[in-house]
Amino acid sequence: MKSVKIILVASLLLLVFNFCTQDAEIDKQEPQIDLTIEGAFPQNCDTLYFGESFKLKMLFSDNVELGSFSIDVHHNFDHHSHSTEVSQCDFLPEKDPVNPFSLIDDYKIENGLQKYETDELITIPSGNENGPFDDGDYHFFVRLTDKEGWSVRKGLSIKIFHR
Amino acid sequence: MSKFIMLLLCMNAIYGLSFAQKKYELKGKVIDENNQALAGTYVMLYPIEKGSVVDKTGSFLIKDVEEGTYKIEISFIGYQTVTDSISIPEDQPYNAALKKSFLNLQEIVVTDNYAERRKREESLNTEIVNERYLRQNLGGSLMKSLERLPGVTTIDIGSGQSKPVIRGLAFNRVVVAENGIKHEAQQWGADHGLEMDQFAISDVEIIKGPASILYGSDAIGGVINIKHRKLPADNSIAGTVNLSGKTNNDYLGTSVSLFGRRKWFFADFRVTLLDYGDYKVPADSVDIYSYRAAIHKNHLRNTAGGEKNLHFSFGIVKTAFQSRFYLSNVSSKSGFFANAHGLEPRNVDTNLHDKSARDINYPYQQVNHFKLINRSRYQWDKVSLETDLGFQRNFRQEWSKYVSHGYMPAIFPGTLNFDPDLERQFEKFVYSGNVRLSYHANEKTHFIIGASGDLQDNKIGGRGFIIPAYKQWSFGSYAFSKHTFSEKSIIQMGIRYDHGTIHTNEYSDWFTSPVIINTDTTFHYLKRAGNISRSFSNFSWSVGYNYNQERWSFKTNVGKSFRIPIAKELAANGVNYHNFSYEVGNPDLSPETSWQFDAGVEFNAPKFAVETTPFLNYFPNYIFLNPSSEHDRLYGNGNQVFYYTQSKVLRLGAEIHAHYEILNALQLGVIGEFVYSEQLSGEKKGFTLPFSPPASAIFNIKYKKPKMYFLENPYLTVDFRITAAQKNIVPPEKTTNGYHVINIGLGGDVKLQNQKVNISLQVQNLTNNKYFNHTSYYRLINVPEPGRNIIANISIPFSGKMNKK
């Protein structure tokens, strides 16, 4: 009976070590959103304008392959959202929304890229059928994934005004 | 000639019948190694389950025993149980001498040998603890109090809510059963705790490994079986007042019970009230992504909470019939960390939140769980019939300030029938029943056949959609047999068939979203779920073998178990704002099956005991929520898409548990656990499974004596817990560093008149170490574990006798 036990334990240990040491090559790194490149836009606390377009300038990178990204802009008149960034921005006084602007979009990134500098032109209309959009504090949210499904997020506090 | 044979046969039959009616008495004596009478020893005859207790002179008497062969079991605390085969009337009288028992691996000295016997007879690996253990290891919730056991870990949400994890499996892969009825709630959510009152529990049995035969679908990872075995003594009225306090979250709790019995009628009443403030972490800020959120006086903002629980049970107990009703209502309210809702950083009104550490502001969760259970047992000579009937209602609400996520309107319309701040609401009604027929064919063979069924009705509410409303019913039946070849060797096997059906209801958003076709944008109420109907059937089986020698015991078990996909896995189609994930169900999923091999080796000597329990587990189609590389604008509101998929998964691991008695009063112990999981196919091939606990070990020193000054059973224990780093992760997890923590426990009983007042003290995280728990719900936003916590628990029993009329 003792030998049975020894064989059992030994074979289990062997199995364990076998699995632990065979460290299969899997990607365990998240992609990155770089806002330190020259001309990166928008930055935390930046201002955008209704009725105008701007170029999204961010550097995305991953150790293996990038996946896709999305942008989400929504009002922060009640200051519910906090940016994910170190710097703090000054908020305008809290207010109730009347006709706030919102934008959601998803974007594909070409297959096989490890680096991608965004060059998307984003237009912010000045209003809709309910009238002009509300001025004030907005939250600009960027989500990025890599091919394996690792993700990274940046939430920026911005302001959007009518010029 | 034939007439003569007939006559002989008839005479023989009559002789047999008259003989069968003759009853005998079994008398005997039980002594210890020093020839002293062992008063209080239990003597039981199986399979008739007739018993008696040894008196002061060491004698016992069991009346009305028919002729035959029986298994006799003689047990007393601290002594080796004697089991023998006896024939009546030949082996009359029966005398036995009990030897002192070996050191066992119970974490606590149990009041009878129930735990040890169960472990030796069960082919799956089990841990059994009683209420004393729970008091000595009192944590913020039942699971936290059980976390020290080998193979048991938790997923924590704040200081008062924890989910069970057995060998790395959790959620709907672990069954929690209370009084025979499967506890049904919203188990799928990582931020949903377990609605159990740990003060109302007398025994917890943890089965590590697949136990589908007796528990059906979901028992793929294991079972936490909560029992109320206690029966008040005849003609008595008694109770306990339990008081507890914790310094870390300024917790105050009390649980008061009152129970009594008059002949065959008994009743038991309990009320538990808990209230706690925000818990403290050894840090002055928390890094939510790159943003550093300052926290006030180490208090993790808005993690206060409370519980109000009521229990009432009553029943009748007769020799051949027992029936008991359990009525309970467990109600809790607890806050979520205010600087983040799920994974999203939030602005905090510090004036509001830091005003008091005890108030609960948004966001918070409120859960009410009502249960009514009846357990009945009819006992005949060799046959017993048990029935469990249960009704449960689980009502959960999650509240947070209305925020127009995605395409929700910025201004909440006044025409809707729910509060804008009600984020999610789930209401579940469950009707369940079990029948078990047990037949002791002879002293060696024991059969059980049984059936169980349940019906579920689930409703949803609130502004956020994640799962649809659904109805579900399931039915299962099984046969199980246990055969004892000799005293040492037991084989058990079982087979079970299950059938289940699930119907989901259609759901459309309460707000419109812009659908873009070519360049035209039109606004639609998006349909999130359709009417899905699925049926599932499955066979599961298991075979186990136990071999128990004096000092060695071996067990092995092989089995197949399964799980019916839950509504969320089949029909989720919404954004889980707690996790930034757009979760998409798959209506074509097949029932998850699991093959598992379990083994266990235990060695007990007078001064040394060791046990190891390895397992190997394979899932051909593990249901996994796969984070894809996609984002979705319309249905997912720009969030990353998570798809439910199935992949092959291999898991293996082991627990080790050893004690060494250096001196009579001083004992060293080690408890270790390890799990490895790997996905063998699918998009995450090579990755582990989410919430995989890292390897860990507890080194323990325990000092205990029967008496010291005025203290009875005093103990002092020091636990040094080392947890390895978890580098084996799957998106969106983060690697977590290893850590070590020191916990201290001390206590004992103080005799006040005739009552023993039990006192237990603990110091958790003695050095106020800052560390992260890989399986904490808040791990992804870098919230450290609670700092130093001093816990006190006092249990004061009281009792009185009723007048005998």
| H/I helix tally of chain B | 7
Query: Largest protein interface?
Result: A-B, 52 and 56 residues
Q: What kind of oligomer do you see?
A: heterodimer
Nearest-integer average pLDDT of chain A: 87
CATH superfamily of chain A: Immunoglobulins
Q: Which spans of chain B have pLDDT < 50 for at least 5 consecutive residues?
A: 4-20
Strand order of the largest sheet of chain A: 2-12-11-5-6
What is the CATH topology of the largest domain in chain B? Answer: Maltoporin, Chain A
Uncertain residue ranges of chain A: none
Average predicted local confidence, pLDDT of chain B: 89
| CATH superfamily label of the largest domain in chain B | TonB-dependent receptor, beta-barrel domain
Please report the number of helical segments of chain A.
1
InterPro entries (chain A): DUF4625
Signal peptide (chain A): 1-23
Keywords (chain A): Signal
Protein name (chain A): DUF4625 domain-containing protein
Describe the structure.
The complex is a heterodimer of chains A (about 160) and B (about 800). Chain A has one domain (about 25-160): Sandwich (Immunoglobulin-like), CATH 2.60.40. Chain A has one helix at about 1-20; strands at about 30-35, 45-50, 50-55, 60, 65-75, 105-110, 115, 120-125, 125-130, 130, 135-145, 150-160. Chain A is mostly beta strands and about 160 residues long. In chain A, about 30% of the residues are buried. Chain A contains one helix and twelve strands, in the order αββββββββββββ. Chain A is elongated and about 55 Å long. Chain A has a five-stranded mixed beta sheet, with no helix packed on it. In chain A, strands 1-4-7 form a three-stranded antiparallel beta sheet, with no helix packed on it. In chain A, strands 3-8 form a two-stranded antiparallel ribbon. The termini of chain B are far apart. In chain B, the strands form eight sheets. Chain B has a 22-stranded antiparallel beta barrel. In chain B, about 45% of the residues are buried. Chain B is mostly beta strands and about 800 residues long. At the A-B interface, helix 1, strand 5, strand 6, strand 11 and strand 12 of A face strand 19, strand 23, strand 37, strand 38 and strand 39 of B. Chain B: InterPro entries: Beta-barrel_TonB, Beta-barrel_TonB_sf, CarboxyPept-like_regulatory, Plug_dom, Plug_dom_sf, TonB-dep_rcpt-like. Chain B: This is Iron complex outermembrane recepter protein. Chain B: It comes from Mariniphaga anaerophila.
